[in-house]
Amino acid sequence: MTVQEGDLLWTPGQPRCEGSRLTRYMQWLAQHRQLHFENYAALWQWSITDLEAFWRSIWDYFEVRSSAPFSKVLEKRTMPGAQWFPGARLNYAGYVLARERPDTIALISVREGEALQRMSWATLGAQIRMLATQLRLLGVKPGDRVVAVLPNTHHAAIAALATTSIGAIWSCCGPDFGAKGVLERFRQLTPKVIIYVDAYQYGGKYFDRSAELATIRQGLDSLEHAIYVPYVTQGRTQAVPAGAHNWNEVMAQPPIAAADFVCEQVPFDHPLWILFSSGTTGLPKPIVHGHGGILLEHLKHMHFNYDAARGDTMFFFTVTSWMIWNFLLSSLTVDVIPVLYDGNPGYPGPDALWKVIEESGATIFGTSPTYADHQRKAGVVPKAHFDLKRLKAVALAGSPVTGECMQWFYENVNHDLWVVSGSGGTDCCTGFVGGVATLPVYAGEIQARSLGAAIFTFDEQGRTLVDEVGELVITEPMPSMPVMFWNDPEGTRYRDSYFDIYPGIWRHGDFSKINARGGVYVLGRSDSTLNRYGIRIGTAEIYRSLAQLEEIDDALIVNLDLPGGKFFMPLFVKLRGGRQLDESFTRRVGEQLRRDYSPRHVPDKLYQVQDIPYTLTGKKLEVPIRKILMGIDPDKAANRAVLRNPEALEFFIAYVREQHDYPRGTV
Fold first, then answer.
1. pTM
2. What tens digit of pLDDT does each residue of 441-463 get?
3. Burial of 522 (0-12, 13-18, 19+ CB in 10 A)
4. Which of 67, 168, 256, 269 is deepest in the core (most CB within 10 A)?
5. Topology classification of domain 89-444+479-496
6. Of 49, 44, 34, 40, whose CA–CA distance to 12 is shortest?
7. 537-658 maps to CATH 3.30.300.30
């Protein structure tokens, strides 16, 4: 079945609508606030207009407690500089530990190709308290930084919650990061403690990272302690490195009762964790989030954008260095069981994750459109081989979602499935636009703007657009906006990152389109968006059209702005099955793009490449490649340490050196 953008794919039934967490919240508002809303659009409008009433309702609805009262909800309604819940003292990890129910499962972890491991709340709570106590004994105080190099296992969850429970600040990279990439991040933080593994498994292969981790430890002059987590797999384990504490010994202490453990009570905006921008250009930005803002935002987003609550199991395929991991950790705040997966999603076979979904009883599965495309190309039909009766929602994030991608889930997983598309980012550690359980799903369309997120599309003059492509902006403050950037005392780097174009309004750096019914399309980064003859084209439009050509395995397109108002738009394609690029196929690509969109979408020239470069978090290097092609030094344009496949850069570097069929300009 051919699906067109905007086609109706799914409508929620009455039982799902009436039983949704959003409906329950609206009923609570009617009962406790005497607020009645006709529909979601009216609720959203109130949530971005009466900010204090909305966020106070979130605080009360989720029964957030603070050891000291706040004087008001919002001290300053400005961006940047909004002050939320001044006076309140609380702790994010304390809210998690308050959910502890010793006789229930807290989390599930699984390594590729192995059996699931379930951890009870009794064990999780005890280990968080134990590690937190040991960190205190090592001299870690509120505000100190604890960094980690860990895979997506229970160790990372325990370490993050233990760190934040004592008011210290958490930051993490995955073990596949290069030493340079880790040091560029962690040196900025001057950490006191590092918790790490020095090996990992991926795709059935064992990777020894002891040399890299030794370099990282030596390169962090501020370190006072290191805690080594043995990574045992395939019968292998490393010896405990010199000067490091053994995790197993650290945790082999008498248990600490919940009543005897006190979480550090910190101000609402006390730093919780530090996430980093992708780092594809320049030094990665250390983005600081606060305890209170993240807690309120994630409670809201989990319940109202994923309809998640007690009894659910949430499985997002992610790595510890991606903000999705931090969001997944927050499933513990809503009594949802997170599934932590360590390894390759395609090992030992392309359907590996569906087996995990079946065995874990996952109700919410988060993945990327790229994964869905790989499943389609591999011929995987999950409903034919797995019992997925508990799965009620699939969340797609990481890149723009096509209607064809969404339709694949309805045809191959379940016809009665809520396919949630969303977009947000590391900057606020949440989704600005996403799913609404009571609304229909339309092909390629994000259902709505999230509650409390004043999302609009602006033109270059700051005028609001409807059904037109423009800049995605946020016009009102949100509690989970960064507290600050680390080492940015005057806030200069922070302001320059988001407020340089529209004063007092957050410019996120994405092109978007919002239609008359409130549906949203996010079309790619605005600084990588193509501009031809004054018409702005999101790269997602190009990729959406090319996805229909079976011969193309992957692609990357950029537009080079040249002197005299000229431009050159090359398309780089990775072809499948040994196919070679020829004039006939080049013509087909042009016809496809012209038919789907316009002549402006047709590239000036096609080039065949062996691979498309990606960051470790799965983002194409559109902007860095554009800069390389415009003559910028490759080492300044792209940070190899954060690339999944740095060798893929070589084609583009050679291209600049050898090609003479386009005039180079300057960025």
1. 0.87
2. 999 999 999 999 999 999 989 99
3. buried
4. 168
5. Rossmann fold (3.40.50)
6. 40
7. yes
